[in-house]
């Protein structure tokens, strides 16, 4: 195995990235997960924009927050079940079934949009959350079945880059569909996305059952508990999983704070908010692909602490840059924002933070996949997803409390504080992850 890794380390990374996108082993999974993530964010943002601009709900804020909670809840409860199902069944066949079910969920979303029905749209969003929770362990657990070990970093880099680009495009499409298109056109788009996702899943190669004797536990709470225990049993696996979960929490909290900072401190409108989201998605893509280029086929964890330091630095600078700014009184457009020194600084910090994040998470998740036992791989990924969801929920709730009137911390202070905490995360991964890997 070591000989293969050493030989792969000398291979050119860019041809490998391009080659993977052309191969039957990887391309169908790539496009299936791209359309799936696009679909999730399309429906979620369509619902948010529908609440804000078409229904004119007085309690828009809580209703939008409820949408996030409805989508995240299944990941906390069903990731363990998804991991067990993925190990007990052929992952490719299970993917086909889930993506066919997604078509039915899209029908509910389309009817909900047609009737402007919040209950139907919430139902569709919950259905998408369930499918996402069950699909998560599959899409990461199947990669080592489809790719060689020296291709894993490149495969994960492409998946992470595509995920954030799909999130960005889905958010834009969802917003435009709710406020700028006819219901008929949006319904056709909803069905086209679901059909494209299902069609891509049909070409994913069969992998066989990793654990054919495994009996799936229908008690989701017991399976969640058991998977967390399994992840914690291996100290190295646990430390990597904690680091990955920290990344997702950092990203979720940052994406909840930055739009408020831009609106309140610079007066940036929807166009500016969209541009900053584009910088974030672009940064994640660059960082993820850079991780593959640096690794050259190896699973290289040494740069991870440096990436955490980069995340810390950009977050601290983002907080310091906006802390003393007065509250904006007028709305500005993209050219005005990017022609100002503070606009360029914010854009640079957001892109730098996202790039560092891609460099941070890709090697860590690849190491988890590569070192997990084959018969347990999907369940391990499910356990990691449970941790991710728990970190995100805890981080967002704590942020809400710190933003509340009773505490009153401003968004720039919270961004800087998150940066300081990332200094601790850098020390943690250096001590528990990269040093042990070396």
TrEMBL record:
Its main location: membrane. It holds the Pfam family MFS_1. Coiled coil: none annotated. The keyword Transport applies. The keyword Cell membrane applies. The chain crosses the membrane at residues 26-43, 63-86, 98-114, 120-140, 152-176, 188-206, 242-262, 274-294, 306-326, 346-368, 380-401, 413-430. Keywords: Cell membrane, Membrane, Transmembrane, Transmembrane helix, Transport. It is a multi-pass membrane protein. It is found in: Cell membrane. InterPro entries: MFS, MFS_trans_sf. It comes from the Bacteria. This is MFS transporter.
């Amino acid at each position: 195995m070591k000989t293969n890794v050493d030989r792969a380390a000398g291979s050119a990374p860019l041809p490998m990235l391009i080659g993977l996108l052309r191969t039957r082993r990887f391309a169908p999974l790539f496009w299936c997960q791209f359309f799936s993530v696009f679909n999730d964010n399309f429906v979620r943002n369509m619902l948010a924009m529908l609440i804000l601009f078409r229904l004119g709900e007085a309690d828009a804020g809580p209703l939008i927050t409820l949408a996030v909670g409805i989508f995240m809840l299944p990941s906390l409860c069903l990731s363990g079940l998804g991991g067990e199902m993925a190990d007990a069944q052929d992952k490719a066949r299970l993917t086909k079934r889930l993506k066919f079910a997604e078509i039915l969920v899209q029908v509910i979303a389309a009817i909900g949009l047609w009737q402007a029905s919040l209950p139907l749209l919430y139902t569709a969003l919950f259905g998408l959350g369930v499918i996402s929770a069950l699909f998560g362990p599959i899409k990461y657990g199947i990669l080592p079945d489809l790719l060689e070990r020296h291709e894993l970093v490149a495969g994960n880099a492409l998946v992470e880059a595509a995920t954030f680009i799909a999130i960005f495009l889905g958010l834009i499409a969802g917003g435009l569909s709710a406020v700028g298109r006819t219901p008929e056109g949006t319904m056709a788009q909803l069905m086209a996305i679901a059909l494209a996702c299902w069609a891509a899943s049909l070409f994913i190669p069969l992998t066989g059952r990793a654990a054919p004797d495994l009996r799936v536990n229908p008690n989701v709470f017991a399976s969640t508990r058991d998977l967390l225990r399994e992840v914690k049993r291996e100290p190295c696996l646990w430390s990597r999983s904690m680091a990955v979960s920290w990344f997702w929490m950092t990203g979720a909290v940052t994406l909840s704070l930055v739009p408020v900072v831009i609106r309140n401190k610079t007066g940036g409108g929807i166009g500016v908010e969209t541009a900053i989201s584009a910088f974030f998605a672009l940064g994640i893509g660059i960082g993820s692909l850079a991780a593959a280029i640096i690794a050259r086929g190896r699973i290289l964890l040494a740069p991870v602490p440096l990436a955490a330091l980069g995340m810390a630095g950009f977050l601290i600078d983002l907080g310091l840059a906006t802390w003393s700014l007065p509250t904006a009184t007028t709305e500005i457009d993209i050219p005005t924002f990017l022609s100002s020194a503070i606009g360029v600084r914010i854009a640079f910090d957001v892109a730098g933070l996202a790039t560092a994040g891609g460099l941070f998470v890709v090697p860590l998740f690849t190491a988890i996949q590569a070192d997990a036992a084959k018969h347990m791989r999907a369940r391990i990924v499910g356990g990691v997803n449970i941790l991710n969801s728990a970190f995100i929920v805890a981080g967002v709730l704590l942020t809400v409390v710190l933003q509340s009137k009773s505490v009153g911390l401003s968004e720039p202070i919270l961004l800087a504080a998150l940066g300081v905490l990332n200094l601790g995360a850098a020390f943690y991964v250096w001590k528990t992850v990269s040093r042990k890997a070396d």
